[in-house]
Amino acid sequence: MIRADTIRHSANRGKGERVLAFSRRYRACAAAIAASEWRAFFEAGRLGGKYGNVSRFNAFCGAAPAQMARAQVAAMLGSFLSNRQNEFRETVTRSSLPGDVKHMLHTVNRQKAWFSRDDVILRGGDTPLPEGVRHLARSIMRAVLKRHRRPNARGIAPVLDIRVAKVAPATGTSHGDLWATFRFVGEKAFSIPLHSHAYWRERQGKRCNVLQIVPDQRGFGIRLMTDMAEPFAASRAAYQPRCERVGVDFGLTTLMATDRGDLMGRGFLDAMRRIDRQIVAIARHRMRSGGKPRDSLRYRRLAEQVRGIVKTRINTALNRIVDLHAPAELVVERLDFRMPGLSRRLNRILSNCGRAAFRAKLADLRDRFGVETAEINPAYTSQECSRCGFVSRDNRPSQARFRCVSCGHTAHADVDGAKVIARRRSLGLDFRFTARGQVLAELQRRSGERQGRHHARRGTKASSRQPKPASQRKPVLQGNEAFL
Ligand SMILES: [Zn+2]
């Protein structure tokens, strides 16, 4: 459970240049290692892994950095391939292949033996899988790989251990409170001052003997790592949940809403609109002159600003929810963070960084407090009434309001969405692997049953009540695929 903190530095120009020049060599080294790993993967069927021999890459920036680059590349490729492994499994599961072939393909996939030259043997059996199946496994994996760009080893931010970079408290008083000393091969050692912040100083946990260089548009940043395993174990033990679950919905007017009625991150959409106007203007200008928006420094800074705002807002909102309600579990829907009325360009940035920031924060809350996350299928959550379960697009007279046409329940639309999310979870209706149409059918069936019981009760008890005129009667159950 490593946490990284960015620490300000004040390297002078010459030293800054040396750090950047080293980073470039390190990245070239990582790229060369990655290329050789991919070759090994396709030719021999496996990656060299974390401890493979890297002496032939020493020329880039020395032996120790080559080993560190190898470890980073191994982690990067490992997580990339484990995602592809999941996709392979889904592809095979969804396919119409015969059961025994699926079983054999799953075995190849479990052993990551897609391109391996070795025999693959089924559990409990003794004959190797036929070449036809192995061939099929290779084709499926190639198709899966083709859907994704390979991870970019040239974008790796070097992680350096004490053989290359060391952080120590400053002894003088003139500069920062820490010094980072670099020993690059073939160069004289040099140090740059770091200026730590209270958040880092007050962090509990064990300082790791590594430092990360993060090259960016303005030069580079320095990150220091802390191992939080012990303090997090203590905070998890101390955490006392006060309720079973809190439903969280992503709003159109606010960033987040909970089923308790909290609205978090008001003004988020307005902030995004302001940035969007600038992003669209730059993009238009660039396109007219035949360039790409990303070539503009101002554009890249705006995109960076969006990422910063999203991350801060998400962290603040989720921290506040845990603070207020101390749930054992957060219930969320699979989300995409797109907001209406913003450009496609900004929405793409939002959905990429929003998902990543949200996942990271949920993982942080699990590490820190043991708060679990449950995910439910988002189909029709915005049209379902949290009180009676009735589903209709007519339940949404406007983007901000929810008004059930069946029972008359009214609420803030995002809050009702959060209530539906929590309610589905407590009823065990995650619908995690259910198609949209089936979700709707099941919701309608349940809502119909409820209404049936309701009518039966009314019929026996409230015979004196006036029947409603036809125009106010409950409409036929309906759903609309196009609404979401
Ligand atoms: Zn209702």
Q: Tell me about the biggest sheet?
A: 7 strands, antiparallel
- Radius of gyration computed on alpha carbons: 28 Å
Please state the overall shape, judged from the principal axes of the Cα atoms: globular
Question: What is the succession of H and E elements?
Answer: EHHHHHEEEEHEEHEEEHHEHEEEHH
- How widely separated are the two ends? 38 Å
**Small-molecule binders:** zinc ion
Name the helicity range: 40-55%
Major beta sheet, strand line-up: 2-6-7-1-5-4-3
Strand content: 15-25%
Low-confidence stretches: 459-484
Tally of helical runs: 12
**Number of E strands:** 14
Category by helix and strand content: alpha+beta
Total count of domains: 4
Question: What do you see in this structure?
Answer:
The chain is an alpha+beta fold. The chain folds into 4 domains: 2-12 and 156-229, no CATH class; 25-152, no CATH class; 244-376, no CATH class; 380-414 and 434-461 and 472-484, no CATH class. It contains 12 helices and 14 strands. The chain has helices spanning 13-43, 58-61, 63-94, 99-110, 131-146, 198-201, 229-238, 268-288, 297-325, 344-369, 413-426, 436-461; strands spanning 2-9, 159-161, 165-169, 178-182, 190-195, 206-216, 219-227, 243-250, 254-258, 263-266, 327-333, 372-376, 401-403, 410-412. It has a 7-stranded antiparallel beta sheet. The protein has a 5-stranded mixed beta sheet with strand order 10-9-8-11-12, sandwiched between helices. α3 (63-94) packs across α5 and α8 (268-288) packs antiparallel against α9. The longest helix is centred in the first third of the chain and has 32 residues, at 63-94. Residues 459-484 have low confidence and may be disordered. Zinc ion binds at residues 385, 387-388, 390, 404, 406-407, 409.
